[in-house]
Target: TRAF-interacting protein with FHA domain-containing protein A
Amino acid sequence: MTSFEEAETEETVTCLHLTFYHPGQDEKMMFRCLNFCKREQVRADDMAKFGRDSSACRYSLMDTRVSRIQFSLQFYRKLHTSEYGFEIKNLSKKTKLTVNQTELGYLNKMDLPWKCTICFGDYQILAEVQEGEAVDYFETHLHLAEAPILQEKCLPSLQPIPENGISPSFFLSQGKSPTEIDENDL
Model:
């Protein structure tokens, strides 16, 4: 046998990719303490905290409007499976945190979707989980966005379309109003 055949199987590592954006990031430099260059290992039993207090938080945001500890991410193994996930918890008494469209108040927590947007104040963070098998640790890889992650979109109001496929706006444009017809009359 060769040394290649005898080598231990290399396990993949779960990696949490976090892309940060703030409209004032160029002037205020609130991300200056974050390491955007390389992946960082975090022990599985450590809680990854984000906030203003560099002594309590692994990831410091240099902004007086950010809570001392804003939120935390906890790595865990899902019950009765071999899958891993992250739980996000809002640790700010003053600022609500939203994960996609779900609002979390103080001490509220939820499972972090595999791809989601975390928002608080003017901060936008795109979180993407890259699955792995390692049990003892996970990795974080931080990125800086040049443009807003969330864009305001002007979507037309969605109106239900009836089963016959004719939009109510069709009748209104012809000066008629829709009438209800019994299906037996057809």
